[in-house]
Structures are given as C-alpha cells and as structure tokens.
Design a protein that fits this description.
Distance between the termini: 89 Å
Number of helices: 10
Order of helices and strands: HHHHHHHHHH
Radius of gyration: 24 Å
Helix content: over 70%
Number of strands: 0
Strand content: under 5%
Number of domains: 2
Shape: elongated
Structural class: mainly alpha
C-alpha cells in the first residue's frame, strides 16, 4: 500500500474529520440547520421538513439530521417529553398531546415513551385549573355540560372528561362545606 492509499483509508474511516470533507451542499445544510436550531428546540422531522422547504435535497436533509443527532443537537425523545409535559400542564388531554407530537414529526416510539412518563395527578390538577376558569363556581347543568365538552375538545375522552368534572364538582362541594 502506498502512502496516498493509507491517507485515503484514514480519511474514509474517520468520522471526526468528516465535516472537513463535506460537499458545499452538506456544509450549507448543516449551517442552515444549526441556525434553525439556534432559535428553539425542534424535532428531527421538523428540521428535515424545514431544510427541504429551503431547497435542500431530501438526501442532504436526512444526512444533516443524522449528523445533528450524532453530535447531540437533536434528541426527539427529550423533545417529545418536553412537548407532552408542556401541553399536560396547560390542561390538555392525551389526544391533543398526541396530535401535537404528530404535527411536530415525532416518531410513534417517542410518543409512547413520553406519554407513559406523564403523571396522571398532574393532568387532573391542570384540568381542575382549567375548570376553575371555565365554571367559576357555577353548578348549573348547562355549564357543567359545556365544561365537559370543553375538556373533550382539549383532547380528553368523554368518559375521562366526565369523571374529571364530577371529581372537580365534588371537591368544590367539599371545600364549600368546610
């Protein structure tokens, strides 16, 4: 083997030096992706979609996303968990949270992990805060129905929304009695 062949072999095997030998398209895509990520956290699907929207080829976009994941700049599991916690704290149900994760291009495997990590007590507390604003002390049958419907629109199943509203009304009655 000649010296040139040795150098070529080292260059091909070295992942650390790969950025030095990027094509101009790869370099531009990496720079663009880092600029996009500089403003806020995004999923790999979002980054790939934004890069292709900006004119990068699908292959370059996928390579760039893989590079970002390799260097630790993208972590869909952590991003999915953050999105799930955020929407749960705002009083949204599982259907709404799953819809948000889907819209952001997060893979199903990350959804399941993020959703399983959610605390049901936190969901109830956030829903109670929402009901405090919605019902404002009213026990009127129509107001209760509207509040249940509102929880359903926020991503709760009807049975869960009805149960939450019932528990909320019981807790209000218990505090009024004391």
């Amino acid at each position: 083997m000649t010296g040139i062949e040795d150098i070529d072999k080292v260059i091909k095997e070295s992942k650390e030096n790969a950025a030095l030998f990027d094509t101009p398209e790869q370099s531009r895509a990496k720079t663009r992706a880092m600029r996009i990520l500089g403003s806020r956290q995004l999923s790999s699907g979002d980054i790939e979609r934004r890069l292709t929207d900006k004119g990068e080829s699908a292959e370059i976009a996928r390579e760039t996303v893989a590079w970002l994941e390799d260097i630790g700049a993208l972590d869909d599991k952590e991003y999915a968990a953050a999105i799930a916690r955020h929407y749960q704290s705002k009083g949204y149900g599982l259907a709404h949270i799953k819809n948000e994760l889907y819209k952001r291009g997060i893979r199903r495997e990350e959804w399941d992990e993020a959703i399983s990590a959610l605390d049901e007590a936190d969901a109830d507390e956030a829903a109670f805060r929402f009901l405090d604003k919605k019902l404002v002390g009213s026990h009127d049958k129509n107001d209760v129905r509207r509040a249940t419907d509102a929880l359903c629109r926020r991503g709760f199943r009807y049975e869960d929304a009805h149960s939450i509203v019932s528990r909320y009304l019981e807790s209000i009655e218990n505090t009024e009695e004391t």
